[in-house]
Design brief:
- The complex is a heterodimer of chains A (223) and B (433).
- Chain A is an alpha+beta fold.
- Chain A folds into two domains: 7-68, Arc Repressor Mutant, subunit A; 80-175, Glutaredoxin (3-Layer(aba) Sandwich), CATH 3.40.30.
- Helix content of chain A is 42%, strand content 8%.
- Chain A contains eight helices and four strands; from the N terminus they run ααααβαβββααα.
- Chain A has helices at 5-19, 29-40, 45-55, 59-66, 88-106, 148-159, 176-183, 203-211; strands spanning 80-85, 119-124, 136-138, 141-143.
- In chain A, β3 and β4 form a beta hairpin.
- With 433 residues, chain B is α/β, with parallel strands linked by helices.
- Chain B is 42% helix and 12% strand.
- In chain B, the strands form two sheets. Chain B has a five-stranded mixed β-sheet, with helices on both faces.
- Chain B is globular and about 75 Å long.
- The chains are: A alpha+beta (223), B alpha/beta (433).
- At the A-B interface, α2, α5, α7 and α8 of A face α5, α7, β3, β5 and β6 of B.
């Protein structure tokens, strides 16, 4: 199977758009692979061939790159990618318990996808949100300070088609393929949605406010 | 007493903190206007004399790094911002870019002008899509306002900024691996020399700096070097974000002068979670040796933390109380390194997986007394022998935990089980129940 003419033409044109962002076309390969995932839900053999053709590489060279990075799926996955952080800190704060509960609830091992294609469950490594531990990354949006119960509620809501808001992200959680298109550098217009940050981000700021602490005045000013 | 100094974090939490008009209402982009009236070498000297050091973990003097670029030869020179923030415990750059992307962009524009660069890149880890949206939007806004693009603010200075999303690989935080990744390859470290300053991106002179480093530049321009050095210590000048996570009452980001202590920070964060006491902590992420309660008063500056047997790293203070099994924590960190090893060098690739499986056995109660010697021996085969600093740092938590908590490993072996209850360490009542 290969792409129909329209898909192939559109991808090729968008590949060129991505390449134009860089002085060297090959720099576009990672975003191109994100774009492939936005069409196929994973890095498909067709996608690999088309990337290779576009950059004058062999499919093996493209595969070698794709297989190096954990965000690139090597087989089709769920509409919602649920990544539970189980690196040391999140694991100990409750990430292990969350993963266990979700694994049981969804009947999935690490990396598995539900038969209906709704969910892929995986353990992810530290996602730079340790002050919000334990964290779940759903389609690479932050779900902060989670519990086993909040995790299964998230699953229930998504199953029921209810809108779900990431803690620090857009108003409504997008699907895996939609997010992959954004990661390829095509704007979804959602940057202005969501908060500036969460409570932990501003924890120090709050203490400074309460205690009347400020940064020093600038040179030449009386402090 | 050290007090907090909100500078990089000052706008966090404000409505629309990420928008250009919010940033400009606070005086944003005035430092760029000032920089463009100066000569590039003056800017390099200014940053040198500020004492600003790299905020990505290594602490290399920033101005000195910029000055390593060879004289202009008419060809391109690049600035690449390392926004791959992946060191376990580190969570300062992501909130900065989400809340205040223009601060970073202004720093980029000033730095690019200082080093003669017309195309800068932000290499963002791909797993934080909302940060990517904010950065892309900020670049768009800055372009529309003539703060990026050609003839910036009426000067003969052009700058394009490309925001690049990676795809998940801890190793891409290592600067040469990052460059290979940005060139569309597997992200594996390069042999140095040549250093990026001489042959970096596309084999051209390149400066690679961390997000927080570059975001510190506009403040130094606007307020002066003596303002900057009025904070921090003589050798670790200025302000930095200290990230507290784990068993603390109010985890989060605390911006303070270098040299603040964990005791002071814990006081601000409401202390260790109620009813518990500090057991061990990392000063700068999982690649920095663990410290204990005896180090509460160590000034958190580069030199003092080295003096205490660890490293300041990224100021990622992961805090664990007495309910935590240190063997479990170290096992999980080692699994991280085994998973993230890029595979280029044998000591890291083989060593981290041996350590990981040996630790898993001990943690599960299947350890033998001889395993402790294996841990020490394999660690010794990695430290100083790996191809890159990320490999060298992998055994840090292990070797330091053997130093402070050796008996805990022995207990696991003797008991044939882990003596801790994992439920007691979780942050939610629900899990503990």
């Amino acid at each position: 199977m290969s792409y129909d003419t329209a898909t192939s033409a559109r991808l090729t044109a968008e590949f060129s758009e991505i390449q134009a962002r860089y002085p060297s076309a090959r720099s576009a390969l990672l975003p191109m692979l994100h774009l492939v995932q936005s069409v196929d839900g994973y890095v498909s053999p067709d996608g690999i061939d088309l990337c290779a053709e576009s950059l004058d590489l062999t499919p093996a060279e493209v595969s070698a790159v794709a297989s190096f990075y954990t965000q690139f799926r090597r087989q089709p996955g769920g509409t919602y990618n649920l990544g539970v952080c189980t690196t040391a800190l999140c694991a100990i704060m409750g990430g292990d318990a969350i993963f266990e509960r979700l694994s049981e609830y969804l009947g999935l091992d690490n990396g598995g996808t539900t038969p209906d294609g709704m969910f892929t469950l995986e353990k992810v490594e530290c996602n730079a949100a340790c002050d919000y531990a334990p964290v779940i990354m759903a389609n690479w949006e932050f779900f902060d300070c989670q519990t086993p119960t909040s995790a299964t509620e998230l699953v229930d809501k998504l199953r029921g088609g209810e809108p779900v808001s990431p803690t620090r992200g857009p108003d409504r959680l997008r699907t895996f393929v939609e997010v992959e298109r954004t990661l390829a550098g095509f704007s979804d217009g959602l940057a202005d949605q969501g908060p500036s940050g969460g409570a932990a981000s501003a924890a120090g700021l709050e203490v400074a406010r309460q205690r009347g602490w400020t940064a020093p005045a600038r040179e030449g000013k009386v402090s | 007493m050290t007090t907090l100094t909100p500078i990089l974090t000052a706008r966090w939490g404000k409505p629309d903190s990420w928008r250009l008009n919010t940033y400009q209402a606070d005086g944003g982009y005035k430092a760029l206007a000032k920089a463009l009236t100066m000569k590039p070498p003056e800017l390099v000297d200014l940053i040198k004399s500020s004492g600003l050091r790299g905020r990505g973990g290594a602490g290399f003097p920033t101005g000195l790094k910029w000055s390593f670029l060879p004289a202009p030869d008419g060809g391109p020179r690049y600035l690449v911002v390392n926004a791959d923030e992946s060191e376990p415990g580190t969570c300062k750059d992501v909130p900065l870019m989400m809340a205040d992307p223009h601060l970073l962009l202004e720093g980029i524009a000033i730095t690019a002008y200082a080093i003669g660069c017309n195309h800068a890149f932000i290499y963002l880890r791909g797993e934080v899509v909302h940060v990517y949206r904010r950065l892309m939007r900020a670049v768009e806004e800055a372009k529309e306002a003539g703060l990026l693009g050609s003839g910036i603010l009426g000067h003969e200075f052009d700058l394009t900024v490309t925001v690049h999303a990676g795809a998940g690989a801890y190793i891409c935080g290592e600067e040469t691996a990052l460059l290979d990744s940005l060139e569309g390859k597997r992200g594996q470290p390069r042999l140095k020399p040549p250093f990026p300053a001489v042959e970096g991106l596309y084999a051209r002179p390149t400066v690679v700096n961390n997000v927080e480093t570059i975001a510190s530049v506009p403040g130094i321009l606007a307020n002066g070097t003596s303002w900057f050095t009025s904070m921090g210590t003589e050798k670790s000048a200025g302000h930095g974000i200290f990230s507290l996570s784990g068993h603390v009452t109010r985890p989060g980001q605390y911006e303070a002068p270098f040299g603040i202590t964990l005791r002071e920070l814990l006081d601000m964060a409401g202390g260790i979670r109620q009813g518990h006491e500090l057991k061990f902590w990392t000063p700068g992420g999982s690649s920095t040796p663990l410290l204990t309660a005896e180090h509460l008063d160590v000034p958190l500056d580069y030199e003092s933390v080295v003096g205490a047997g660890s490293m300041l790293g990224t100021r990622a203070l992961q805090i664990f109380d007495e309910t935590t099994c240190v063997v479990r924590a170290v096992t999980r960190w080692m699994e991280f390194y085994a998973h993230e090893s890029c595979g280029k060098c044998t000591p890291c690739r083989e060593g981290t997986s041996w350590l990981s499986s040996t630790l898993q056995a001990i943690q599960a109660g299947r350890g033998r007394p001889a395993d402790l010697e294996i841990l020490a021996d394999v660690s010794g085969s990695i430290i100083g022998k790996a191809f890159c600093p990320l490999g060298d740092g992998a055994p840090s938590s292990l070797t330091s935990s053997l130093k402070y908590f050796r008996s805990e490993y022995e207990d696991h072996v003797a008991l044939g089980a882990c003596p801790f209850d994992p439920a007691a360490s979780t942050l939610t009542e629900e899990v503990a129940a």
